[in-house]
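Incident log, support desk, overnight shift.

02:14 A customer reports that sequence design results differ from what the structure should imply. Their input is reproduced verbatim below. On-call engineer (initials T.W.) acknowledged and began investigating.
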């Protein structure tokens, strides 16, 4: 995630949205895989691309979203994907990126933002997301942000985790409903992908911060087991390599279908690969 300095002017924002801009900037300093820019909160901003709301309500916008992903796969891998593969890859990228924008704020600050339909836009040409922070935040009562307008409080850490789960589920449900016919998989598989992306985003952030064990504990506390609509828990485990080193891993619940693009390069946590093969890839990579 690269956030240009000119996008961080907060003079027209609210105190809560200013806090979020600062946290998104912090995420951008450590998460190179997160291709998101922060929108200037000023009133005369030209919005880029298509919004999440348009993807869920406008079939032409959704078709353009899928065609853009097809074009990126063709350009990057010299491979023409099936339509369900393009849809799956596009959904995976969206769920991972937007999920991390919520879970990353929670992990870094103990606050949960609500991201609304018009808050996220996607540049179909570049695949870059744009987030417009708004004053809609939940935190604990002893958080200094609790006194700011637009902030709600919950009584304890588990209630805050429940708010994060609800924020992610509420954001993703309309998009899953819209894209499901193109992916040709049922609700459990789709929510399994969202579960994977939520958990992996947190562990990735922790790894980038040099805090992977702490992030694994946080993700496990967030999803200790299945919590509707998420069909399973984080379920991290340790594998021991031939050299005695331990590696943190988990088996993904869903599949982004990357293996159909590069069969020899399946994701290390793909449910279609065995632990021995997964460990070999970790040790070599």
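02:41 Re-run completed on a clean worker. Output:
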């Amino acid at each position: 995630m690269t956030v240009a300095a000119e996008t961080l002017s907060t003079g027209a924002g609210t105190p809560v949205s200013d806090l979020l801009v600062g946290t998104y900037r912090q995420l951008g300093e450590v998460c190179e895989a997160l291709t998101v820019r922060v929108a200037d909160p000023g009133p005369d901003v030209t919005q880029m691309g298509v919004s999440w709301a348009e993807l869920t309500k406008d079939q032409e916008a959704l078709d353009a979203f899928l065609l853009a992903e097809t074009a990126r796969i063709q350009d990057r891998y010299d491979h023409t994907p099936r339509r369900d593969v393009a849809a799956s890859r596009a959904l995976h990228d969206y769920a991972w990126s937007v999920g991390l924008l919520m879970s990353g704020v929670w992990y870094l600050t103990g606050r949960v933002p609500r991201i609304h339909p018009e808050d996220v836009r996607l540049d179909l040409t570049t695949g870059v997301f744009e987030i417009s922070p708004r004053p809609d935040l939940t935190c604990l009562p002893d958080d200094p942000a609790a006194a700011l307008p637009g902030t709600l409080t919950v009584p304890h850490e588990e209630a805050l985790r429940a708010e994060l789960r609800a924020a992610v589920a509420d954001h993703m449900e309309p998009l899953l409903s819209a894209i499901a016919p193109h992916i040709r998989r049922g609700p459990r598989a789709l929510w399994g992908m969202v579960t994977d992306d939520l958990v992996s985003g947190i562990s990735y952030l922790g790894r980038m911060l040099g805090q992977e064990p702490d992030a694994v504990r946080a993700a496990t506390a967030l999803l200790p087991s299945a919590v509707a609509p998420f069909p399973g828990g984080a379920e991290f485990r340790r594998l021991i390599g031939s050299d005695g080193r331990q590696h943190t891993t988990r088996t993904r619940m869903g599949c982004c279908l990357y293996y159909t693009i590069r069969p020899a390069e399946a994701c290390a946590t793909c449910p279609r690969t065995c632990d021995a093969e997964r460990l070999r890839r970790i040790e070599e990579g």
